[in-house]
Amino acid sequence: MSSLLEAQQLLIAGMSADPVLCLANTVAWLDPFWEVFADEDDYGEDGDTLSLALRIVRDSFPDIYVQVIEQLRSGSSWAEVERLVGGEIEKLGIPLENLEFMPYGIPMPAYGVTLEEPEFYQSHPDVIPVVQAFGIDPTAHPYQVEVPECAHIAGQHIAASLENHPDEGYRNLSWLMQWLFACSGNSTIDFDYETICEFQPLSWEQENIDFAAAIIHEADEIIGFALSGLKFLQTHPSVLTALRDNVRRIYKAISKLPKEKRHDNPRVRCVWPSVRSGVDRTALACA
In angstroms, how far apart are the furthest CA atoms of the chain? Predict the structure, then answer.
């Protein structure tokens, strides 16, 4: 045996006999970045967002961090590591398109609607007949859609009136109104991208991660209900006709109010066709 190999064996034997060195060796193997990230308050100033993202994974997602280290040791590329992290975090309910976004906080989707923007109707042409019931005609204004001042009041009024309707179709119609007129109480549903960017993102702490995941899960459910409400309208023309009639009734009631009270909730009785019992009309009070 050469002297070099003998020295190696001697060092290995010495390290194995020393509990402190064994612990240090274990730390270095399991967490090779321990020294780089030793300072808890030092998140770097060199703009290396990928390193910052790795530190966040280490601090907030130890199980994922273990998988990252295993992949790096096996020679995986950074792109493969990025796909791993994004996929694992997405399983927790947080959409993550790119690790470079991680240092800015927990990314939140923005499903909110801006009724004045023509681009919305290009992406969702199927809602045009719905908003036309409120006097909003995207086809007539290709660059800037005009929205009546009382449209949101009417939409929110109808949403509230149908929220506890015994028929699931009408409850889903309520969710559709809540999405279109930003009154669901869920920020991901009610805010568009520009608005949500004005808020300080949540930091990657477990409590915030759970909170964000719950908001996103609820938002996904609301969108599902809203799309079901849209299909409900499409398959029940009489309900769409009733929607137009009720909006006109609400607009008329609002127009009779003094200007200083036109933002108040109008007392209107909306009328909807029954889609279950075969009765011609069913009246529902809108408080």
Answer: 102
